[in-house]
Amino acid sequence: MSVLSRPEFHDEAKAFEHVEGILWPTGPVCPKCKSNERHYALKGVRSKASKKNPNGVERHGLYKCSNSKCRSQFTVRMGTIFEESHMPLHKWLQVIHLMCASKKGISAHQIHRILECKYDTAWFLCHRVRFAMASGSLSPMGGPGKTVEADETYIGRLAGTEVRRGGGAHKNTVLTLVERGGIARSFHIDSAKVKTVMPIVRANIAKETAMMTDEWGGYRYLSGEFASHDTVVHSKDEYVRYEGEKTIHTNTVEGFYSIFKRGMKGVYQHCAEHHLHRYLAEFDFRYSTALRLASMMACAR
């Protein structure tokens, strides 16, 4: 049986129950007054009649706040990416599952074919899900005993910039920090210059971290600022080096870029510059989630 055969992916009432169980584990919470009193469900309420639905549509998961000063009606959609959307919740759950389960992503055209909706709708749904994937975390990566790899890459093309051979001046620049066995954090930056890269590295990585980079000259400023800083010299075909129990490489972040570029070029094919940060958030989320799932499975064995 397929995972997509589960009831929450096809039944609207079950979809509401599924999301409520995740967001309200101890019972409904009013999004307006934040009260978690014994709110009561409103059964049999239907939306206004329309040409498409002359008898209206049943409003699933509708509650009324028990707080005498509030008394507002609400559903689990409010305050989430599902709010103000006419797309049924069970189809939202299908989109979320497909995007999270696809290693290199899934295009809006594929979503539009699966959901049998307009392409514009599928594109909007995908970007809302990417918005939710962005962690927005400001806590430093790494720490005592942790290793973080840093690297930059180039992708796509800057609008209005002449293509130059043998360089990335005409492409978008991406900086990625990957904690081994932890999370990934990517940034769309103006250029790979010291004044751009160093402030991001310093702001996002704990000082007790062991840093590993390639031989780019800008990283020399990391020495003395972190617990340690080791480099591999790719220009001399050095990709991994062993010093006692320490393994020096940037293969983790290179592997991240491998998946990222395969997804961007093979699945999405085109990305406007002003949307690149959303796709980066998607691949950061997918990398971090995959590691957590692998860790949970290893603990369960």
What can you see in these coordinates?
This protein is an alpha+beta fold. The chain has a domain of 154 residues: Nucleotidyltransferase, domain 5, CATH 3.30.420. The chain is 34% helix and 15% strand. The protein has 7 helices and 10 strands. It has a 5-stranded mixed beta sheet, sandwiched between helices. A hairpin with a 4-residue loop joins strand 5 and strand 6. The longest helix has 25 residues. The two termini are 24 Å apart. The C terminus is likely disordered.
Brief characterization of the structure:
The chain has 301 residues and is α+β, with helices and mostly antiparallel strands.
The CATH topology of the domain at 147-300 is Nucleotidyltransferase, domain 5
Strand content: 5-15%
Mean pLDDT reading: 89
DSSP summary, beta strand count:
10
Instruction: Sum up the overall morphology in one term.
Output: elongated
Q: Order of helices and strands, N to C? A: HEEEHHHEEEHEEEEHH
Could you say what the CATH architecture of the domain at 147-300 is?
Answer: 2-Layer Sandwich
Low-confidence stretches: 294-301
Structural class: alpha+beta
Number of H/I helices: 7
Radius of gyration: 23 Å
Biggest sheet architecture? 5 strands, mixed
